[in-house]
Amino acid sequence: MSREVKLFAVMIVVLGLLIASTVVPSVYAPTVIAFDAAFSSSCSSSCGATLAWSHTVGSGSNRILVVGVAMNGPSSVTGVTYGASSLDLYVKSFLGDRAWMYVLSNPPVGAAMVTVTFASAFAGSAGAGSVSYFNVQGVGSFNPSDGSGSLASNTVGSGWGNGIVVDLLRAGSNAAPLSAGAGQTLRWQEPTVGAMSDKVTTTPTTTMTWTLAGGGYGGSWDVLCIGLLPVTVTSTTTTVLGSPVGGFVESVNKVGVLLPWLTILGCITAIAIVVWKKREN
Length: 281
What we know:
The protein is an alpha+beta fold. Helix content is 16%, strand content 47%. It contains two helices and 19 strands. The strands form five sheets. The chain has a five-stranded antiparallel sheet, with no helix packed on it. A five-stranded antiparallel sheet has the order 11-18-13-16-15, with no helix packed on it. A four-stranded antiparallel sheet has the order 3-9-5-6, with no helix packed on it.
């Protein structure tokens, strides 16, 4: 077999590998967390030992329920339940008993009462609410922040893209009107003042901000944040059966796969040309 024939055979093999490398299965990208529902309630002047409201959780998969409680009064929160299920406390305010965020993974589908239990009845005010989501793997980072003035903010690590940061604002009753920051969606607001919003994460850290009374507020505030991480599902086959709610299929970058083979083919072609030129001479 001549050298030219051998080189030609090698080029054919490389070309076959080049074509085969383009047949790469698609994979699931992180699912987008889907908002389900939000409900809230409040008490003012004189609050009892409990504060309750009804919340309806939808039937989506990988559900999560987040409850925020904001208080202006001499008491504290001792627990939160959703029906017969107790929620876990994830984060509370730095200074005193002023704000709390609780979480329940995979709450039962349907309507049930969210009940906040205080240490005692108190002369003051409180605002509380609940938000539920689908396609949540779990809680990532969480932390509190506090301060005073007309701009309230908190920054939390948000993991990777397609997650959501949920925040709770607590401020005085004279902080209204409230304005949630850019990219945030207001989920509930009570005049005591308490409010919750969420924001889709696109960077390693996410900052949540609130403007209080258009710049005229000078009192204290608390902002608590919880980062929710999206469910991820991968597939190693070319046939994907089903898709998580809110998920999407993202193709593999074929250029990145082809580039090494294109480089090898180019080198072999250059060598073949040089060899043929020498034989012709």
